[in-house]
UniProtKB/TrEMBL annotation:
<feature type="domain" description="FAD dependent oxidoreductase">
    <location>
        <begin position="3"/>
        <end position="343"/>
    </location>
</feature>
<protein>
    <submittedName>
        <fullName>Glycine oxidase ThiO</fullName>
        <ecNumber>1.4.3.19</ecNumber>
    </submittedName>
</protein>
<dbReference type="GO" id="GO:0009229">
    <property type="term" value="P:thiamine diphosphate biosynthetic process"/>
</dbReference>
<dbReference type="GO" id="GO:0043799">
    <property type="term" value="F:glycine oxidase activity"/>
</dbReference>
<dbReference type="InterPro" id="IPR006076">
    <property type="entry name" value="FAD-dep_OxRdtase"/>
</dbReference>
<dbReference type="GO" id="GO:0009228">
    <property type="term" value="P:thiamine biosynthetic process"/>
</dbReference>
<dbReference type="GO" id="GO:0050660">
    <property type="term" value="F:flavin adenine dinucleotide binding"/>
</dbReference>
<keyword id="KW-0784">Thiamine biosynthesis</keyword>
<keyword id="KW-0560">Oxidoreductase</keyword>
<dbReference type="GO" id="GO:0005737">
    <property type="term" value="C:cytoplasm"/>
</dbReference>
<dbReference type="InterPro" id="IPR036188">
    <property type="entry name" value="FAD/NAD-bd_sf"/>
</dbReference>
<dbReference type="Pfam" id="PF01266">
    <property type="entry name" value="DAO"/>
</dbReference>
<dbReference type="InterPro" id="IPR012727">
    <property type="entry name" value="Gly_oxidase_ThiO"/>
</dbReference>
<comment type="pathway">
    <text>Cofactor biosynthesis; thiamine diphosphate biosynthesis.</text>
</comment>
Length: 371
């Protein structure tokens, strides 16, 4: 039996596994499909909440810490695996921000570079942006990562670590219990045991925990995205307008997203979303209309009632823990959210106050903690 058993191989599960293995522990990671192929793969890879000043303090504390981790994490994974997660710190341009004053006040309070820039600055940075924009907000420190390559690199690193055992295409069918302890999980490969159990099941976490009569208010929220193939350098920075964005990759691929759809676990794409995504992307960069849409896809975000993740021990169980419900910010929060839980698992000083993320009775009932 290994020290830890992690259920779910998205970015949250893989980073939890990596940190525990780095600390010298043995870890088993169980994933029902292939590691990193659900929401972690499907997102855009912006290393910040879209409008960070609109989020609560607990989200800001995690995202700020995570943002500083991605450059070194990407370099580490490139060195160890030869797979480049393509971290790019090119900044973000915000167009048509209605609450600009609140944004600038937030930036001053957080010590975050954010400034109002004029049209000369905007078009010098991004000449293909729609004409006629007189001003924008500029956040120079924002970065993005090519998330499909990030999860590929994480999986390769874990597969090479002797203290890690990966079980893919291995769905958890139930839990083996001994009183108030989880002694193992039932899978097609048999019972897999672990000393401490961490559930990182993304949008599927509620159905996993329902087996234990634990009600976790996490639901799937579909997001569709598209990608244009453009010449390299056609767009160089993340550009955001009215909640929609374009995200460039180094090879000229430009992602555009995304929708928010309450459709359960259905992941199909459709022409209506394609049209809406094209319309918003081409309102930001009109010349994208002349480029080919190379891909359209959908993923399922794990939505939570207060948009805060659930991080911590599950009440009533001695060795069961959860890290789930990150909604649109799973990749953004992953380094800090996993570090916070690993701190608690190993008895270390917590990265931040863990209280806002805990599985209290109010939060499990789907209510804000203050209600």
């Amino acid at each position: 039996m290994r020290d830890f058993l992690i259920i779910g191989g998205g970015v949250i599960g893989m980073l939890t596994t990596l940190q525990l293995a780095d600390a010298g522990h043995t870890v088993t990671l169980v994933e029902r499909g292939t590691c990193g192929q659900e929401a972690s793969w499907a997102g855009g890879g912006i290393v910040s909440p879209l409008y960070p000043w609109r989020y609560s303090g607990p989200i800001s504390r995690l995202s700020r810490w995570s943002e500083g981790v991605y450059p070194s994490l990407s370099l580490r994974l490139l060195e160890e695996t030869g797979i480049d997660p393509e971290y790019r710190q090119k900044g973000l341009l915000y167009l048509s921000v209605k609450d600009e004053r609140e944004a600038l006040c937030w930036a001053r309070e957080m010590g975050k570079p954010l400034e109002q820039v004029d049209s000369d600055f905007l078009y010098a940075k991004e000449p293909h942006v729609a004409p006629g924009i007189e001003q924008a907000l500029w956040m120079p420190t924002l970065g993005s990562v090519r998330n499909p390559r990030l999860v590929q690199a994480l999986r390769a690193r874990l597969a090479a670590m002797k203290q890690v055992s990966l079980h893919e295409q291995c769905a958890v069918q139930g839990f083996q219990r001994q009183g108030t302890r989880i002694s193992g999980v039932v899978t097609p490969e048999g019972v897999i045991q672990g000393g401490q159990v961490v559930v990182c099941g993304g949008a599927w976490v509620a159905s996993l925990l329902a087996e234990l009569e634990v009600t976790l208010p996490v639901r799937p929220v579909k997001g569709q995205m598209i990608a244009y193939q453009t010449p390299p350098g056609f767009v160089n920075r993340v550009i955001l307008k009215d909640g929609r964005y374009v995200i460039p990759r180094g090879d000229g691929l430009v992602l555009a997203g995304s929708t928010l759809e309450e459709t359960g676990f259905e992941k199909s794409t459709d022409d209506a979303a394609l049209m809406a995504l094209r319309q918003s992307a081409e309102a930001i960069v009109p010349e994208l209309a002349e480029c080919k849409v190379a891909h359209q896809w959908a993923g399922l975000r794990p939505g939570s009632p207060d948009e805060l993740p659930f991080i911590g021990a599950v009440p009533g169980w001695e060795n069961l823990h959860v890290n789930a419900g990150h909604f649109r910010n799973g990749l953004v929060l992953a380094p800090a959210a996993t570090h916070l839980l690993v701190d608690q698992l190993l008895g270390r000083e917590p990265l931040v106050d863990p209280a806002p993320y805990q599985l209290t009775s109010a939060r499990l009932a789907g209510k804000p903690e203050s209600a």
